[in-house]
From TrEMBL:
Protein name as catalogued: Putative Ent-kaurene oxidase
Record CDD domains: CYP503A1-like (cd11041)
Chain ranges passing through the membrane: 14-34
Keyword Oxidoreductase appears in the UniProt entry: yes
Species this protein is from: Glarea lozoyensis (strain ATCC 74030 / MF5533)
Family: Belongs to the cytochrome P450 family.
MF-aspect GO terms: heme binding; iron ion binding; monooxygenase activity; oxidoreductase activity, acting on paired donors, with incorporation or reduction of molecular oxygen
């Protein structure tokens, strides 16, 4: 038998197999696009969506169904909105039943953007343990960086000058968060700051770009989405920029484990001395710090920047707009800060950790601004992870993989009643009243409540006719 007689049938078989594979692929694609699996059955009333106004849609539906869940039609998946009386119940559920991590991973397409891919607890422990423990030092660093950034981004303006508020403060927030995350001198590196800002924008852009396509096509179109290709370049950039600092930190850990004294005269070592930040803490939380990887630490840094920049930048921008709309409160806020500094007499002239609880009016102003301009339409958003679904105290069962959330409880037209915030003696929620929360903290037993970083858990509903 000749070589040709052997080759021809083999080639025919190869093409036949390839043809079958291609046919199966297209059948799978057609089935996934045109005959997707049915969504979980949700036996709840369905809200009507007001075009372009999701907030009012939620408020209207909550008024119609004040004490029961309802479905909020969303793409690509409907959400179940829960009554606020269940907020404590949901917050107490373990990850095995409802998960914020999984919700965030899926919402921001972690398979493609990389957000949430790291399974290492090092970064989370670094924030929960080391950052919390170092608030006193970090507060001084942040004030130093804020002063530097304000002088750089705004400076001394002899006359009224127009500034783009959001972009100006995003740059300031990027510098200040960078001081806590990567320390000096990298936090003042323009390339680093621009990369952290653009990573945030391109991550959101990637999500929007991918959701233009059917979910079945995502694995195939991902490599062609420009924003996703940029995300990879940011991660590589972060690893490259952080590598000198990481190698110096690792070297100091190795020296310590071997009982050696690090060469403090070394320029790299001097750069990290007394400059502890999230990079240090993340490496320190590793089981084996000497094996820390620059790529992983860089990805964690970009993820931390993503979580911080937009919400904080937006909250500060709204507070600036509210102060510009109500300039009559500026002198009172300035007086409070000066009074606290005069009382504490700090040697460096900066606010101390002990100063923060005393800035009641400033805290109240920020919280009132955030109440009227929340960074997110919903709060306490989770995805049900329990295999048999989540059974609520009301008897309702929500199937696995369904997203649940609560509407923001403190909006002007919200039906939620939370004494003493909504007591008749308080100004109506429809008004901007900057001392709303500082007034509430004068009530016995409420002195440490109603602060901008605290979320109260006690809610009850009252049907308002």
């Amino acid at each position: 038998m000749s070589y040709a007689e052997i080759l021809v049938p083999s080639v025919r078989n190869l093409f036949a197999a390839l043809g079958v594979a291609i046919a199966c692929f297209f059948i799978w694609i057609i089935k996934a696009i045109f005959f997707p699996p049915p969504p979980p059955k949700l036996d709840f009333p369905v809200a009507s969506i007001i075009p372009g106004n999701l907030t009012d849609s939620i408020l209207a539906a909550r008024k119609q169904w004040p004490t029961e869940p309802f479905v909020l039609p969303m793409k690509p998946q409907s959400w179940v909105m829960l009554p606020h009386s269940m907020m404590t119940e949901i917050k107490s559920q373990p990850e095995e039943k409802v998960s914020f991590k999984k919700m965030s991973y899926e919402r921001f397409l972690g398979d493609y953007t990389g957000l949430g891919q790291s399974k290492s607890p090092a970064a989370i422990n670094a924030i929960k343990i080391d950052l919390t423990r170092s608030v006193k030092k970090i507060l001084q660093d942040l004030q130093d960086e804020a002063e530097y950034s304000f002088n750089k981004e705004i400076g001394v303006l002899p006359t009224w000058t127009s500034l783009p508020v959001y972009m100006t403060f995003i740059n300031i927030v990027a510098a200040c968060s960078g001081r806590a995350f990567v320390g000096l001198p990298l936090c003042r590196d323009k390339e680093w700051r621009d990369a952290t800002i653009n990573f945030t924008y391109d991550t959101l852009g990637s999500v929007h770009a991918m959701k233009k396509y059917n979910k079945a096509l995502w694995p195939f179109v991902a490599r062609f989405v420009p924003e996703l290709r940029k995300l990879k370049s940011y991660r590589e950039f972060a690893a490259r920029k952080l590598d000198p600092q990481i190698q110096t930190i690792i070297r100091s850990y190795k020296d310590k484990s071997m009982g050696l004294k690090s060469d403090e005269a070394n320029a790299d070592m001097e750069a990290i001395k007394h400059n502890y930040n999230l990079v240090h803490w993340t490496i320190g939380q590793h089981d084996h710090p000497e094996l820390a990887d620059a790529a992983e630490v860089g990805q964690m840094q970009m993820t931390a920047a993503f979580a911080a920049l937009s919400p904080i930048g937006m909250s500060i921008s709204y507070a600036i707009f509210d102060l510009a709309s109500h300039p009559e409160y500026a002198d009172e806020l300035r007086k409070e800060i000066n009074d606290v500094l005069a009382q504490e007499k700090p040697e460096n002239g900066q606010l101390q950790k002990s100063s923060l609880p005393k800035l009641r009016k400033l805290d109240s102003f920020m919280k009132e601004s955030q109440r009227l301009n929340p960074p997110f339409i919903t709060t306490n958003t989770r995805v049900v992870t329990a295999p048999d679904g989540l059974t609520l105290s009301s008897g309702h069962t929500i199937p696995q993989n369904v997203i649940i959330a609560f509407g923001n409880p403190f909006l002007p037209n919200s039906e939620v009643q939370y004494p003493p915030l909504t007591s008749p003696s308080q100004p109506p929620l429809s008004n901007f009243y900057p001392w709303r929360y500082s007034d509430l903290r004068q009530i016995p037993g409420e002195e440490n409540a109603h602060q901008v970083y605290l979320l109260h858990r006690k809610f009850r509903l009252k049907v308002v006719k």
